[in-house]
Amino acid sequence: MAAQMPEKNNKQTIPGQTDPRRSDYITNKVLLVFSGCLLGVFGLMFLNNVLGYSVHWEAGLLAIQVLRIVGVVLAVAGAVVMLVQRKRSASLAYRVFKGSTLLILGLALAVIFSVVAWNPGSGIKLMYVALPAFAFAYLIYHSYQPEFFLIAMDCALAAGAVGLGQTTFGAAYHVPLLILAVVLYVLQIIGVAKVKSDLGRIHLGTWRRYVFDFSGNAYLMMFLTPVLMAVVAAAGLLVGGRVPVACMVAAGAYFFVTAVYYTVKLV
């Protein structure tokens, strides 16, 4: 029955504030992710430089395929290590380097270089944005309140959809991008309504429950933000001229204001 007990959310304040070991663990995880993303960007810059010379083009393509295979191998190895650690009942609490770390690294390499292999030029440019964005989102997830993480993702989705719609690839997909964004916003609103009706509880299957101490203002922000960002995305994707740029700026400004607000709340 112990597994049925609600797990209290502790991200309403700085994570690990009352547990030094947890604080060090989260700090190390965030540093690891930032370091990995930074190395990934530098590696992609080097690869892009290699692909820029026709004499090295084939070598660059070969490197992409090799790194994709390496990612798959690392993911499989990570899964095996996880099974071994679980069978040995090894204590993995507050350990950064473990089987799941290797698994995630392998999956990341496989996905990144699959995208790059699909279209080297556009794929590398996409990863220039995706890797820092992921690192930043990871930092927000571990350092801020859960509601602000949702707000940040709402803003990123609106700005990302509008920005993608301004590229050559996304120019023909304005309506599908808008539909996708609206569906995700609606799912968020339904999910938040469910959590609110269940007094802040989230049930993951039958074995774990999380309890969040959301205030009335937090629920208001989680309901209001997706609606506002849906309007921003619709305007940016359906109206031409300078409107798309203005919409991306609006999403960024909204994020900045809320970031300041929630940062002050953490102090």
Strand order of the largest sheet: 1-3-2
Q: Could you spell the SSE succession in H and E letters?
A: EHHHHHHEEHH
Any idea what the radius of gyration is? 21 Å
**Could you say which overall geometry the principal axes of the C-alpha atoms support?**
globular
Figure out the total of helices.
8
Number of DSSP-assigned strands: 3
Query: What structural class do the secondary elements suggest?
Result: mainly alpha
Approximate strand percentage:
under 5%
Overall average residue pLDDT:
83
Helix content: over 70%
Ends distance: 37 Å
Low-confidence stretches are 1-17
Largest sheet: 3 strands, mixed
Folded structure, characterized:
- The chain is mainly α.
- Helices cover 74% and strands 4% of the residues.
- The protein is built from eight helices and three strands, in the order E-H-H-H-H-H-H-E-E-H-H.
- The chain has a three-stranded mixed beta sheet.
- A hairpin with a 3-residue loop joins strand 2 and strand 3 (208-211).
- The longest helix is centred in the first third of the chain and has 32 residues, at 20-51.
- The two termini are 37 Å apart.
Structure at a glance:
The radius of gyration is 21 Å and the shape is globular. By secondary structure, the protein is mostly helical.
